[in-house]
Amino acid sequence: MVDFTGMPVYPLTDWNVNNLRFTAFPVMAERRTDLRWWSEAVGTDSETRTTRTTPAQIEESGPFESGGRLSLTVTPVRTDWLLTGIPTPSPSLDSAGIFPEVYPIFVRLVKRWLALESRFPIQRIAFGGFLIHPEATREAGYERLSRYLKDALRVDLRTSQDLLFQINKPILSRIVEGLTINRLTKWLVLSVQFTLLMQAGVAPMSARGMEQGFATALELDLNTGAEHEGPLGNERLDYLLDELVQHAVEMASDGVQG
Q: Over the chain, what HEC string results?
Protein backbone atom coordinates (compact mmCIF):
# COMPACT_ATOMS: atom_id res chain seq x y z
CA MET A 1 0.00 0.00 0.00
CA VAL A 2 1.35 3.42 -0.93
CA ASP A 3 0.62 6.51 1.15
CA PHE A 4 1.16 9.83 -0.62
CA THR A 5 -0.01 12.01 2.29
CA GLY A 6 1.87 15.28 2.32
CA MET A 7 3.30 14.91 -1.17
CA PRO A 8 2.46 17.64 -3.71
CA VAL A 9 0.15 16.97 -6.62
CA TYR A 10 1.30 17.51 -10.18
CA PRO A 11 1.46 20.85 -12.04
CA LEU A 12 -1.71 21.98 -13.78
CA THR A 13 0.27 22.07 -17.03
CA ASP A 14 0.43 18.26 -16.94
CA TRP A 15 -3.19 18.10 -18.12
CA ASN A 16 -3.98 18.13 -21.83
CA VAL A 17 -7.46 19.04 -23.07
CA ASN A 18 -9.32 16.30 -24.89
CA ASN A 19 -12.48 18.43 -24.80
CA LEU A 20 -14.04 21.42 -23.05
CA ARG A 21 -17.76 22.13 -22.89
CA PHE A 22 -20.09 24.93 -21.86
CA THR A 23 -23.84 24.31 -21.68
CA ALA A 24 -26.65 26.79 -21.09
CA PHE A 25 -30.24 25.81 -20.36
CA PRO A 26 -32.97 28.35 -21.19
CA VAL A 27 -35.77 29.35 -18.88
CA MET A 28 -38.22 28.46 -21.66
CA ALA A 29 -37.74 26.36 -24.79
CA GLU A 30 -36.65 28.49 -27.77
CA ARG A 31 -37.49 27.15 -31.24
CA ARG A 32 -35.47 29.31 -33.66
CA THR A 33 -33.20 28.44 -36.58
CA ASP A 34 -32.34 31.99 -37.69
CA LEU A 35 -29.78 32.66 -34.96
CA ARG A 36 -26.25 33.72 -35.94
CA TRP A 37 -24.54 33.19 -32.61
CA TRP A 38 -21.41 31.63 -34.10
CA SER A 39 -20.42 34.61 -36.21
CA GLU A 40 -21.40 37.05 -33.44
CA ALA A 41 -19.34 35.28 -30.76
CA VAL A 42 -16.43 33.90 -32.78
CA GLY A 43 -16.11 36.85 -35.17
CA THR A 44 -15.94 34.75 -38.35
CA ASP A 45 -18.29 32.46 -40.22
CA SER A 46 -18.28 28.77 -39.36
CA GLU A 47 -16.95 26.18 -41.82
CA THR A 48 -20.17 24.20 -41.64
CA ARG A 49 -23.72 25.12 -40.70
CA THR A 50 -26.71 22.79 -40.58
CA THR A 51 -30.24 23.75 -39.59
CA ARG A 52 -33.28 21.58 -38.98
CA THR A 53 -36.86 22.55 -38.32
CA THR A 54 -38.18 19.26 -36.89
CA PRO A 55 -36.82 19.08 -34.30
CA ALA A 56 -35.46 22.63 -34.29
CA GLN A 57 -31.67 22.53 -34.23
CA ILE A 58 -28.63 24.48 -35.38
CA GLU A 59 -25.19 22.88 -35.71
CA GLU A 60 -22.06 24.84 -36.63
CA SER A 61 -18.37 23.99 -36.51
CA GLY A 62 -14.95 25.32 -37.43
CA PRO A 63 -11.36 25.65 -36.20
CA PHE A 64 -10.67 27.09 -32.75
CA GLU A 65 -8.28 30.00 -32.42
CA SER A 66 -5.79 28.16 -30.19
CA GLY A 67 -6.12 24.78 -31.93
CA GLY A 68 -8.67 22.01 -32.02
CA ARG A 69 -12.22 22.07 -33.39
CA LEU A 70 -15.06 24.19 -32.05
CA SER A 71 -18.74 23.31 -32.43
CA LEU A 72 -21.99 25.01 -31.49
CA THR A 73 -25.23 23.08 -31.09
CA VAL A 74 -28.50 24.90 -30.36
CA THR A 75 -31.72 23.04 -29.55
CA PRO A 76 -34.91 24.31 -27.90
CA VAL A 77 -33.78 23.01 -24.49
CA ARG A 78 -30.01 23.66 -24.44
CA THR A 79 -27.05 25.33 -26.13
CA ASP A 80 -23.63 23.66 -26.19
CA TRP A 81 -20.24 25.12 -27.06
CA LEU A 82 -17.79 22.22 -27.45
CA LEU A 83 -14.03 22.28 -28.07
CA THR A 84 -12.48 18.98 -29.15
CA GLY A 85 -8.90 17.93 -29.73
CA ILE A 86 -7.08 17.27 -32.97
CA PRO A 87 -6.56 13.58 -33.89
CA THR A 88 -3.02 12.40 -33.21
CA PRO A 89 -1.18 9.67 -35.21
CA SER A 90 -0.11 7.86 -32.05
CA PRO A 91 -1.56 5.71 -29.26
CA SER A 92 -2.85 8.74 -27.37
CA LEU A 93 -6.11 10.64 -27.13
CA ASP A 94 -6.81 13.73 -29.21
CA SER A 95 -5.61 16.98 -27.65
CA ALA A 96 -6.57 20.63 -28.07
CA GLY A 97 -3.59 21.82 -26.05
CA ILE A 98 -2.46 22.31 -22.47
CA PHE A 99 -5.32 22.94 -20.04
CA PRO A 100 -4.16 26.22 -18.40
CA GLU A 101 -3.38 27.66 -21.84
CA VAL A 102 -6.62 26.60 -23.52
CA TYR A 103 -9.39 27.13 -20.98
CA PRO A 104 -8.98 30.96 -20.65
CA ILE A 105 -9.42 31.36 -24.42
CA PHE A 106 -12.47 29.09 -24.39
CA VAL A 107 -13.98 31.01 -21.46
CA ARG A 108 -13.49 34.34 -23.25
CA LEU A 109 -15.45 32.96 -26.21
CA VAL A 110 -18.28 31.84 -23.94
CA LYS A 111 -18.41 35.27 -22.30
CA ARG A 112 -18.77 36.92 -25.72
CA TRP A 113 -21.78 34.67 -26.32
CA LEU A 114 -23.22 35.47 -22.89
CA ALA A 115 -23.03 39.18 -23.76
CA LEU A 116 -25.16 38.85 -26.91
CA GLU A 117 -28.51 40.63 -26.83
CA SER A 118 -30.05 37.85 -28.93
CA ARG A 119 -29.24 35.27 -26.26
CA PHE A 120 -32.20 33.80 -24.38
CA PRO A 121 -32.65 34.07 -20.57
CA ILE A 122 -30.66 31.31 -18.86
CA GLN A 123 -31.80 29.15 -15.94
CA ARG A 124 -28.75 26.86 -15.55
CA ILE A 125 -25.17 26.72 -16.80
CA ALA A 126 -22.49 24.03 -16.82
CA PHE A 127 -18.76 23.97 -17.49
CA GLY A 128 -16.93 20.72 -18.01
CA GLY A 129 -14.25 18.87 -19.86
CA PHE A 130 -12.17 15.76 -20.30
CA LEU A 131 -8.51 16.13 -19.35
CA ILE A 132 -5.78 13.60 -20.05
CA HIS A 133 -2.15 12.91 -19.18
CA PRO A 134 -0.19 10.26 -21.14
CA GLU A 135 1.36 7.50 -19.06
CA ALA A 136 4.04 4.94 -19.83
CA THR A 137 2.19 2.17 -17.98
CA ARG A 138 -1.12 1.53 -16.29
CA GLU A 139 0.67 1.43 -12.93
CA ALA A 140 2.06 4.93 -13.52
CA GLY A 141 -1.48 6.13 -14.09
CA TYR A 142 -2.69 4.55 -10.85
CA GLU A 143 0.19 6.17 -8.98
CA ARG A 144 -0.86 9.56 -10.33
CA LEU A 145 -4.49 8.94 -9.36
CA SER A 146 -3.36 7.92 -5.87
CA ARG A 147 -1.88 11.36 -5.34
CA TYR A 148 -4.93 13.22 -6.65
CA LEU A 149 -7.24 11.06 -4.52
CA LYS A 150 -5.08 10.77 -1.41
CA ASP A 151 -7.76 12.35 0.82
CA ALA A 152 -10.56 10.19 -0.53
CA LEU A 153 -9.13 6.82 -1.57
CA ARG A 154 -6.19 4.52 -0.97
CA VAL A 155 -5.03 2.52 -3.97
CA ASP A 156 -2.90 -0.62 -3.85
CA LEU A 157 -0.76 -0.15 -6.94
CA ARG A 158 0.21 -3.83 -7.07
CA THR A 159 -3.25 -5.37 -7.16
CA SER A 160 -5.66 -2.69 -8.42
CA GLN A 161 -7.35 -2.93 -11.82
CA ASP A 162 -10.24 -1.20 -13.62
CA LEU A 163 -10.19 1.73 -11.21
CA LEU A 164 -12.89 4.37 -11.69
CA PHE A 165 -13.64 6.90 -8.95
CA GLN A 166 -16.59 9.30 -9.24
CA ILE A 167 -17.76 11.84 -6.70
CA ASN A 168 -19.88 14.98 -6.40
CA LYS A 169 -18.75 17.62 -3.88
CA PRO A 170 -21.61 20.18 -3.98
CA ILE A 171 -21.06 23.62 -2.53
CA LEU A 172 -23.08 26.83 -2.21
CA SER A 173 -22.30 29.57 -4.71
CA ARG A 174 -20.51 32.69 -3.55
CA ILE A 175 -22.16 34.67 -6.36
CA VAL A 176 -25.85 33.72 -6.16
CA GLU A 177 -27.29 33.27 -2.66
CA GLY A 178 -28.76 29.83 -2.04
CA LEU A 179 -27.61 28.43 -5.40
CA THR A 180 -25.99 24.98 -5.31
CA ILE A 181 -22.96 24.26 -7.48
CA ASN A 182 -22.47 20.58 -8.25
CA ARG A 183 -18.80 19.64 -8.56
CA LEU A 184 -18.68 16.26 -10.23
CA THR A 185 -15.39 14.57 -11.06
CA LYS A 186 -14.62 11.17 -12.52
CA TRP A 187 -11.06 9.81 -12.26
CA LEU A 188 -9.75 6.84 -14.24
CA VAL A 189 -6.87 5.38 -16.25
CA LEU A 190 -7.55 4.70 -19.93
CA SER A 191 -5.99 2.13 -22.21
CA VAL A 192 -5.63 3.49 -25.75
CA GLN A 193 -4.94 1.25 -28.74
CA PHE A 194 -3.64 2.55 -32.07
CA THR A 195 -3.72 0.47 -35.25
CA LEU A 196 -1.38 1.29 -38.13
CA LEU A 197 -2.97 0.77 -41.57
CA MET A 198 -1.05 0.11 -44.76
CA GLN A 199 -2.33 0.63 -48.32
CA ALA A 200 -0.90 -1.83 -50.83
CA GLY A 201 -1.79 -0.93 -54.43
CA VAL A 202 -5.56 -1.01 -54.81
CA ALA A 203 -6.05 -3.59 -52.09
CA PRO A 204 -8.07 -2.59 -49.02
CA MET A 205 -6.15 -1.03 -46.16
CA SER A 206 -5.06 -3.65 -43.66
CA ALA A 207 -3.78 -3.60 -40.10
CA ARG A 208 0.00 -3.45 -39.96
CA GLY A 209 0.44 -3.43 -36.23
CA MET A 210 -1.05 -2.25 -32.98
CA GLU A 211 0.40 -0.01 -30.33
CA GLN A 212 -0.98 0.54 -26.85
CA GLY A 213 -0.81 3.59 -24.65
CA PHE A 214 -2.22 4.69 -21.31
CA ALA A 215 -3.54 7.95 -19.95
CA THR A 216 -4.74 9.28 -16.64
CA ALA A 217 -8.08 10.98 -17.26
CA LEU A 218 -10.25 13.45 -15.38
CA GLU A 219 -13.83 14.19 -16.40
CA LEU A 220 -15.14 17.47 -14.97
CA ASP A 221 -18.76 18.59 -14.71
CA LEU A 222 -19.39 21.80 -12.78
CA ASN A 223 -23.02 22.91 -12.96
CA THR A 224 -25.59 25.03 -11.19
CA GLY A 225 -28.33 23.13 -9.39
CA ALA A 226 -31.46 22.06 -11.25
CA GLU A 227 -33.63 23.18 -8.35
CA HIS A 228 -33.05 26.84 -9.21
CA GLU A 229 -36.12 28.45 -10.79
CA GLY A 230 -36.24 31.48 -13.06
CA PRO A 231 -33.43 33.24 -14.92
CA LEU A 232 -29.94 33.75 -13.59
CA GLY A 233 -29.32 37.50 -13.67
CA ASN A 234 -27.38 38.67 -16.71
CA GLU A 235 -25.15 40.81 -14.52
CA ARG A 236 -24.04 37.70 -12.60
CA LEU A 237 -23.47 35.21 -15.42
CA ASP A 238 -19.84 36.13 -16.09
CA TYR A 239 -19.01 35.89 -12.39
CA LEU A 240 -20.92 32.62 -12.05
CA LEU A 241 -19.03 31.14 -15.00
CA ASP A 242 -15.75 32.26 -13.42
CA GLU A 243 -16.82 30.51 -10.22
CA LEU A 244 -17.46 27.22 -12.04
CA VAL A 245 -14.14 27.49 -13.87
CA GLN A 246 -12.28 28.24 -10.64
CA HIS A 247 -13.67 25.09 -9.03
CA ALA A 248 -12.70 23.06 -12.11
CA VAL A 249 -9.14 24.40 -12.02
CA GLU A 250 -8.83 23.72 -8.29
CA MET A 251 -10.00 20.13 -8.67
CA ALA A 252 -7.68 19.51 -11.63
CA SER A 253 -4.80 20.94 -9.61
CA ASP A 254 -5.52 19.71 -6.09
CA GLY A 255 -7.57 16.56 -6.63
CA VAL A 256 -10.37 15.55 -4.28
CA GLN A 257 -10.02 17.38 -0.99
CA GLY A 258 -11.56 16.32 2.31
A: CCCCCCCCCCCHHHCEEEEEEEEEEECCCCCCCCCCHHHHHHCCCCCEEEEEECCEEEEEEEECCCCCEEEEEEECCEEEEEEECECCCCCCCCECCEHHHHHHHHHHHHHHHHCCCCCCCEEEEEEEEEEEEEECCHHHHHHHHHHHCCCCCCCCCCCCCCCEEEEECCEECCCCCCCEEEEEEEEEEEEEEEEEEECCCCCCCEEEEEEEEEEEEEEEEEEECCCCCCCCCHHHHHHHHHHHHHHHHHHHHHCCCC
